[in-house]
């Protein structure tokens, strides 16, 4: 069964781990919504659905034709993400009257893990960094790419709707974009008076924007400086549908872990390690689409 990090945190009795998870999901719309599948082993081989089967009408005596979905076998390998947080024992003893120094240091490390995951979720490429996993920009298939033009162009609502329509069997669960693209979408909505852009609180009590009922996820790792044709100021908007039949995270049996390494030999400090055996899988290529060449 796939669980989001928020749901997994409810099952944990470790106060420090729960605090780390809360810190991570607070800053990341991706990790708030992305479900994770726990797997045993260092990877998962799965069949990615590329096209659905078809059905037809037949006359009496017709020869029936067979139609099955098409699949591509994919393999997602768990990668090791994390970092160490050292707390000087002198500072811990003399300054913890002001705040919990260890908790503050671990919280900062948790934010670093969250930012690295968000970056890799979008831009991961094992060809340039074999230690990471492939992100959705690389995993999106060519047939699920909508273009603003040979040299890019200013965002239009028509193109955004075309992107949304590339997601089959339901709407996207999120539109991932840069802050610049979000500002442009807000401007378009005001200019057209469409009323499609709304603001409301999400399940975490945070104010969030919705386009035609689809949550907007702002990701600071979506570049506004991609080159499309002769333009070097382009961005990308991603439409994603999460779940075991769409895009899901993969995690080791213990999920996100906070490990107290303890006292260090070479310095007067104690170490806490935040680690995560993690990857992502796209189970159905029709649940991921992207709009490229988005200019300001």
Provide key terms for this protein:
296 residues; alpha+beta; 2 domains; nine-stranded mixed beta sheet; five-stranded mixed beta sheet; 16 strands; 27% helix
What report would you give on this structure?
The protein has 296 residues and is of the alpha+beta class. 27% of the residues lie in helices and 34% in strands. It folds into two domains: 5-50 and 72-134 and 245-282, Major capsid protein gp5 fold; 140-240. The chain contains eight helices and 16 strands. Strands 5, 6, 7, 8, 9, 10, 11, 12 and 16 form a nine-stranded mixed β-sheet that branches. Strands 1, 4, 13, 14 and 15 form a five-stranded mixed β-sheet that branches. Strands 2-3 form a two-stranded antiparallel sheet. A hairpin with a 2-residue loop joins strand 9 (207-211) and strand 10. The protein is globular and about 80 Å long.
Output the structural class: alpha+beta
Total individual domains = 2
Query: What would you report as the Rg, rounded to the nearest angstrom?
Result: 22 Å
Helix content: 25-40%
Q: Name the shape in a single word.
A: globular
List segments where confidence is low: pLDDT < 50 over at least 5 consecutive residues: none
The percent range for strand residues is: 25-35%
Question: What average pLDDT do the residues reach?
Answer: 89
CATH topology of the largest domain: Major capsid protein gp5 fold
CA distance, first residue to last residue: 41 Å
Order of helices and strands: HHHEEEEHHHEEHEHEEEEEEEEE
Q: What's the level 1 CATH class of the largest domain? A: Alpha Beta
Please summarize the sheet with the most strands: 9 strands, mixed
Supply the CATH architecture of the largest domain: 2-Layer Sandwich
Total strand count, please? 16
Number of helices: 8
